[in-house]
Design brief:
The structure is a homodimer of 317-residue chains. Chain A is of the alpha+beta class and 317 residues long. Chain A is 35% helix and 25% strand. In chain A, the strands form 2 sheets. In chain A, strands 7-9-6-10-8-11 form a 6-stranded mixed sheet, sandwiched between helices. Chain A has a 4-stranded mixed sheet with strand order 2-5-3-4. The first copy, chain A, is globular and about 65 Å long. Chain A starts with a helix and ends in a 17-residue tail after the last strand.
């Protein structure tokens, strides 16, 4: 099958008749954002053996690719709208791979309400590389990471560390409960949360590189510090049971990344509103600390003692 | 150096203070196209050993990446405006590589009048992969490839086959005249031509996959055929001298690709206007055939005999 035939068969249907995509037959696509909405752009790659396991299925590539990107839109309070794809695959990769990749994109784009508008593909040596550029729409003001205020509460959504704890088990072929494995394979971009937070939060970002590293980014951008209570970090039952037998699990929870939860800050007078939002979204929104003056990130254990986070092996400088 | 520090040092300056880029410190970028202009999106990758030579310099990556993308904007009659970059580099690649890559992007974006707004980067195994997504602006109606009419003249810009003929010489380390090597390393996106053709041409596309394959694409999209005169194909002095000793050079000229010239169609009454445009742009615009009814692509030699293009080894189906 030629590249052109593959595009026509598997990818052109994903444009769903969107006029500006020209059914992927032209040199470029035309985007016309609806009046009064801003266009938000994000791009992320998913590479074999880095963001997905070696020999990941085409479906696993597609889901991780979509969700990594949409998590960035969620963090800004934007909603999905259009996307483009870049594919690099080994020469001679079976047609089945493309069929499964496109079928999964079809499910994902229906679920998240967006359509394909363009892309490119190459084949050659080496691992599978997939890149998505996602075009979101934003009404009102974007959630930013540079506007946290000393005195704000610091929250995270969902539970942390699950993907990072599941990963080595998946890599070693150990049995992993399906829900726990899904935290790695199929993260949930917190789009509804991001949308709601536009009028509640002072700052937000998605936790993709690890809680402490991402909180440090938010604080640096906002010129503030933060004090976090380790015991208040929301954990799944699986993470709790791993932690019960292995205290080094904290390194994965605090620094592992791949959570795709949102961290956000809000003044204390928003607590009731945030509790109501958590109920409405059926998603835990947990206060794990406070924003402080200065530039220090402190982590306190259950005795109020400072944990030496310099010893946890992530980029924190 | 951490990824964050590298982004801040080398890439954030390329945003040139563009507000929506947030200096590359946030989750996504915001694009606000000027009123009355359409946003045109294209994306292409440049991968080591596929689009550039093995061990290509960082500057060669950057130039090919920018120019491959801008050629697609040129083919639609759009002008460069904003871009994002995805980088995948081998673990431990020297900082010098990033410095040279960013310095070359700085030159290119100044030359082509666009700024960086976002991207992502990863490091791992394998070859260097670079991807650009380019956001162009379009006033008026886009040049399309689906609107050629039977009876139109068929033109190409510049000379064809140079990059494809230079490539094996470069791969084998043979001496190559600088201008000829530049056709491979540093193609010239025909932006001014594409802009002018919006009111002259009936259809256009850029020649990236090889003349015959791309003409076939244009004809298929327009539901027409074409008859090309091989002897009228514009050639450089270097290509002519190679052809004089090796008739297989035709395969490179007709099917080699990497030309990044524009092919376009226009009714015969536009001949004087096109000749004037060629003078004004100081760029040869050569009539190489005509658009026909039906769906056949014919290539005639200097005796008017049909050349069997099925024997030339490119994708033509």
């Amino acid at each position: 099958v030629t590249e052109r035939a593959r595009i026509a068969r598997y990818f052109a249907p994903l444009t769903a008749g969107e006029a500006g995509s020209f059914s992927l037959t032209d040199d470029a696509a035309i985007l016309t954002p609806p009046a009064g909405q801003q266009l938000v752009i994000t791009t992320d790659s998913v590479i074999e053996n880095i963001h997905v396991l070696a020999h990941a299925s085409a479906a696993q590539f597609a889901r991780k690719l979509v969700r990594r990107n949409l998590s960035d839109l969620a963090a800004m309070g934007a909603r999905p709208w259009r996307y483009s794809i870049n594919l690099h695959t080994p020469r001679g990769l079976a047609d089945d791979w493309f069929a499964e990749f496109a079928a999964t994109l079809a499910e994902e784009q229906a679920h998240f309400n967006m359509v394909l508008i363009g892309g490119d593909s190459t084949s050659g040596d080496g691992a599978i590389h997939t890149t998505m550029t996602c075009f979101g729409l934003l009404e009102g003001t974007a959630l930013r990471r540079n506007s946290a205020q000393a005195g704000d509460d610091l929250y995270v959504s969902g539970t942390l560390g699950d993907a990072a704890l599941a990963l080595p088990m998946l890599q070693h072929g150990q049995p992993v409960p399906e829900d726990f494995a899904a935290r790695y394979h199929m993260p949930e971009p917190r789009l509804a949360l991001g949308h709601a937070l536009k009028t509640i939060a002072t700052a937000a970002l998605d936790i993709s590189d690890g809680l402490l590293q991402d909180i440090a980014q938010l604080c640096r951008a906002s010129a503030v510090g933060a004090t976090l209570l380790r015991d208040d970090i929301p954990l799944s039952d699986e993470a709790r049971s791993i932690l019960a037998v292995d205290a080094t699990a904290w390194d994965f929870i605090l620094g592992g990344g791949d959570d795709y939860e949102l961290a956000f800050t809000a003044p204390p007078e928003k607590r009731a509103e945030i509790a109501a939002l958590a109920m409405q979204l059926n998603l835990p929104l947990t206060r794990i600390g406070i924003v402080t003056e200065g530039d220090e990130i402190q982590l306190l254990d259950e005795y109020g003692e400072q944990v030496d986070i310099g010893k946890i092996g992530w980029e924190y400088a």
